[in-house]
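Note to self: the last two entries modelled the partners one at a time, which told us nothing about the interface. This time every component goes in together.
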Amino acid sequence: MTAMVTPHLFIPGPTNVPDAVRMAMNLPMEDMRSPEFPKFTLPIFEDLKKAFKMKDGRVFIFPSSGTGAWESAIENTLAVGDKVLMSRFGQFSLLWVDMAERLGLNVVLCDEEWGTGVPLEKYADILAKDTAHEIKAVFATHNETATGVSSDIAGVRKALDAAKHPAMLFVDSVSGVGSLDMRMGEWGVDCCVSGSQKGFMLPTGLGILAVSQKALDANKSLNGRMNRCFFSWEDMIKTNDQGFFPYTPATQLIRGLRTSLDLLFAEGIDNVFARHTRLASGVRAAVDAWGLKLCAKEPKWHSDTVSAILVPEGIDSANVVKTAYYRYNTSLGVGLNKVAGKVFRIGHLGALDEYMIGGVLFSVEMALKDCGVPVKLGSGTGAAAEYFVNNPVKPADKKA
Amino acid sequence: MTAMVTPHLFIPGPTNVPDAVRMAMNLPMEDMRSPEFPKFTLPIFEDLKKAFKMKDGRVFIFPSSGTGAWESAIENTLAVGDKVLMSRFGQFSLLWVDMAERLGLNVVLCDEEWGTGVPLEKYADILAKDTAHEIKAVFATHNETATGVSSDIAGVRKALDAAKHPAMLFVDSVSGVGSLDMRMGEWGVDCCVSGSQKGFMLPTGLGILAVSQKALDANKSLNGRMNRCFFSWEDMIKTNDQGFFPYTPATQLIRGLRTSLDLLFAEGIDNVFARHTRLASGVRAAVDAWGLKLCAKEPKWHSDTVSAILVPEGIDSANVVKTAYYRYNTSLGVGLNKVAGKVFRIGHLGALDEYMIGGVLFSVEMALKDCGVPVKLGSGTGAAAEYFVNNPVKPADKKA
Amino acid sequence: MTAMVTPHLFIPGPTNVPDAVRMAMNLPMEDMRSPEFPKFTLPIFEDLKKAFKMKDGRVFIFPSSGTGAWESAIENTLAVGDKVLMSRFGQFSLLWVDMAERLGLNVVLCDEEWGTGVPLEKYADILAKDTAHEIKAVFATHNETATGVSSDIAGVRKALDAAKHPAMLFVDSVSGVGSLDMRMGEWGVDCCVSGSQKGFMLPTGLGILAVSQKALDANKSLNGRMNRCFFSWEDMIKTNDQGFFPYTPATQLIRGLRTSLDLLFAEGIDNVFARHTRLASGVRAAVDAWGLKLCAKEPKWHSDTVSAILVPEGIDSANVVKTAYYRYNTSLGVGLNKVAGKVFRIGHLGALDEYMIGGVLFSVEMALKDCGVPVKLGSGTGAAAEYFVNNPVKPADKKA
Amino acid sequence: MTAMVTPHLFIPGPTNVPDAVRMAMNLPMEDMRSPEFPKFTLPIFEDLKKAFKMKDGRVFIFPSSGTGAWESAIENTLAVGDKVLMSRFGQFSLLWVDMAERLGLNVVLCDEEWGTGVPLEKYADILAKDTAHEIKAVFATHNETATGVSSDIAGVRKALDAAKHPAMLFVDSVSGVGSLDMRMGEWGVDCCVSGSQKGFMLPTGLGILAVSQKALDANKSLNGRMNRCFFSWEDMIKTNDQGFFPYTPATQLIRGLRTSLDLLFAEGIDNVFARHTRLASGVRAAVDAWGLKLCAKEPKWHSDTVSAILVPEGIDSANVVKTAYYRYNTSLGVGLNKVAGKVFRIGHLGALDEYMIGGVLFSVEMALKDCGVPVKLGSGTGAAAEYFVNNPVKPADKKA
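The predicted structure of the combined assembly is written out below.
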């Protein structure tokens, strides 16, 4: 820490840690076997369920990352060789497919254009044809962080229901939950994967996995399960019910999580989602004003947590990111894999407000100009300001 | 601390605390009489002298605020009834005059229009006429925080020299030192008053007073001194030379000061000043683009640490400040006293960069619009961006 | 901060900052003129009154130290030349007398043996004889930090009442309030001086001055007051009533103070006092077991916040302190002035419990042994443990 | 955080976080793909190797716990059905065996009495007889945290060498590395498992796994490997070499790790080991003085990081732990599994000094007494003090 000003963080995770959370994590260690510990942990498990809008089931907190929670979902419910339906349209859905294959699943894959999302019609078609119900689970990436694409999870549920298909529904909502509406109960999601460092506004270090009763039942009845121990649910269930953990939990982060949840509930989680839509709309107004395009092909794919922005031919988006970083002290997301060099990303999730959107658009505008993209300076910030001014949500003279 | 995002701070002090400083102050208490303590304090005293560009003399650190350091300067060098030359052109120079009078000084006052600064010609004139050298000290406000006016301290020195006048030169540089160039040695400043919460980027709580050898001599030879104890120099000198203090020092802030000084020296203090000029230029470009005027009447008075901006007739500047605060989570400075309702202020000193200037201009633009000021959204941010892009200072692909 | 373990702090202030307070102070700066600020400050002023058990009057918070609050009390209620009754029996009562004289008061002084406290009979005598009521204020040091002596403030009130004397009663309770019972209302204290770094468990930086209505009236009616500005009450009163301050307040510490008060009230301040008595009793049991004597001559003078312990002839107490510091990482208080070399001090105030008393006695025992004092190792810790075990206050199987 | 004093932590992990580390972790999030990030991470990888005293190989940092690092070691080097040699003599060696079996290994098990350690002669015997080299790996628990037993890793190496056996050597040193000497290079250890929350003095959240070149080769040549992805080495190697990670790393903890390593190296890691031996000796002197026995059967098994202490017949050790916690604000380790109710544990690893040992012995002594164990108060603290005074290591008048 030797910088006068810490770089401004607009990657799509880790997100900015609210000061209240930072303060809550600035604490000495504690005994995770103390008789007082469950008084702290048990309410957390309950409150997490509200964040996922679950009907039944439970939430696991692993000292890991979202990737670990992915692995836990698979290892605890599926057997090697099981058939699953997946789609790939960005770096993170790609990695999820890669994991499924490495863990021995038999992936029925829909390979989609990057910039689109979960192909509902194809899914419906495949599920309808799978009358033998060989497909054990359907995977859907709620928010593809690499391309800024959100998918319609309710639509996947409809496809399953239309086909009367009993497969489980697995959702990667690492960059969704806490920022985008996730209705596990209503949408019949069985495993929903998240992590601490996005909508929960914490440092990386918790894999958060919400599972339905159906998934818990699958776990119980499973034969030929994959080898696992660290990520096993049984050990967690046995101890979590008493407020403890099978091995040392990441108490510092869980203390922070307590405050994060408090902040989310204080604002109201539906208000939090609305704020994300509002701020994302400001960013998209700026992109339009710059004459640029999003990587997301259609408005229905627009993500409210991250915008992947295409640079014009002949420009290397990596230079835009580098210029923003070194010259304007602003961290943007780079383009990954297929869209490397072609897109840069603005993460707009977590603890954010209009000022911060103004700040990042200001930095981006200058970096684009410096890199030879012919944007009019002030056009993006102006368009975003226009959007915010015309859509006021807070009183001007007292606390909202 | 229950806000998701802490309000963005653009008052002209307290300024934003750099993360490194915040981290350094997050510490347990220590024994201020331990034999190791002087190894920490003695270098601080030396390093502070670099920040003031002093030739001789010393720097006192009081657990107080800038106001306390003002009082210390007067009480230790002047007697009740002493004649002093002062000027008043804003709330803080006004309060300084008020203090001088309450402490019993005989003030020769130049009452100037708010928006101007120290009247060099009048000073020269008065000093030339004071052939009996009745004036014991000349006071100059380096940076009038209420109106965003900087004054020419070298010019005051010239006036003194031209008149061959032996009066001491007292400078209020609370919102100057560490952000604006202060050359105590070269300019022959005898008492320079500052505080922790401006250019030193710390919480409020330290009154920092730099004094020349001439001021120290005045202290020694003084008869009929004012009553004082807490702010007396003698007690400080006796103990400071051993690295200690006459009463419990504010060690937490002094630990923070250590890191602040490290940050200032790492950037290079002349680079810090240049950064302030650059960022202030961006703000002024925005003010021009909005079609508004600064309170500072002429460019020579423009302050690089704070801009006081006049709102059009019929608009209440307090509403702009309130709207920015409640709707856009941005703290601006209000208009004080004579300029209440007429100006709002953007503090742009301390740990700041282009992004932050973009952010505050974005918030201000929206707040102005909301309050009925006919600004074109994007005009201010665009003009500032234009300035920054056309005047690059950092490489785009590596650390500066 | 490069030590593996931070030195254990047992000086009589600054005291250990509770983790909750440390966390509360780890925050960004805020606008002390924001419309939300009074919602934070006004309850603090009220809650401070509870800590002082006041009936009427108000509490001032200066960005200074206890020394500054001393000065404020004098400057706002007394005139140069006023006669005051004081007593001197340790370094801090000595410094208070020194200040009174330097500020121009006419001190009627009782010079007492170090190790005793306020001489109630002498005070009664002097007051009874002062039928002309020339004495304007009576000063009493509640807790002399240098010698570990507490005085009977209720007794001073009785002496005043017996003489039907209208003088104001000034109490230095810097190392008392928040740790020792202070009943300003019941005892008719007019100015009670404290600081942030003792019973309030904060870093140094706040001078806290509680004043009665009588003192406020004295302030209003005063002619020929001392010159002052920083420490003046009038400016504070004008702004405090709206929740603001006349100059920038030390918001970081006041945020910490909020949490300190919450902790004190959560434990119950009378429980806090009882805890101090209990822990001090453990320390005194150890001193007895070591065969050493306290500087305080009689049990009635025993301070529950600090013990000054006499070393045997031929031993230099400074060596004990140095050995404890360098070899056992434990900060003790040195002997000051007349008792330099003769006593070392254990501060036992603020956020402390039995374990910590055990720890410091352990370190002291070893340091004494190393320095040639013939203590039996385990005798002091054993005696303290005996006291605690025989006087249990908390259940062994659930939260108190 | 509402306690006046945070409970004193003497469980065998998480350990006390040094203030410097706590300060270093009090930071905003950063971009783990920034071009500056490798400048921070690459030296960490190198410095970790010094902590393990490795010759070749590398260290992996997983966002997990030690349990995860166990799993990673197995999954990346062994195949389902592989034969391994293990021993079980406490809760953590028991869990390791459990994991090995659940992951599909064929465990040749030495079931030892709790209170003993790795059975060198049996190991030698089994290895000598395994002329077909069916055993692929030999597992040894360096420090069994549940019983306070250290084992002789160099001895295991000797047994392997004597048998000219090519099996890999896996060591669980979760509560060893950083506190007990670990010479991976000299002792030919192939996988050494640790975590952040013990000798590295950090919060839980990092699984730290050091592997030799031989282990890396085993990984490369392995067929029929276990399914894994999160804990796979290949992904780590690919990205670590550039200073990056295959998924979001726990940057906050890694920043803390930087400071932890700095502290360890500043003290000198061999000095750190000596300090652990010294402090453990003080604890053992106290146990003797109390007339109690350690769970560790013989001095050769004594652990320098944790002491498991047997309570007399008729006493429930859980009551001792509860009393220490609720009445004396001190967290001890409970007895686990076979020794539940029979032992309580004092963790004495990490950032500790004599004062803290004195404090915990003081609390324990009182809790024992309260629970009916006939200890003489002061006997334990006295014996420990005796040990420390008779074995001085630091000068009494200057920094060591």
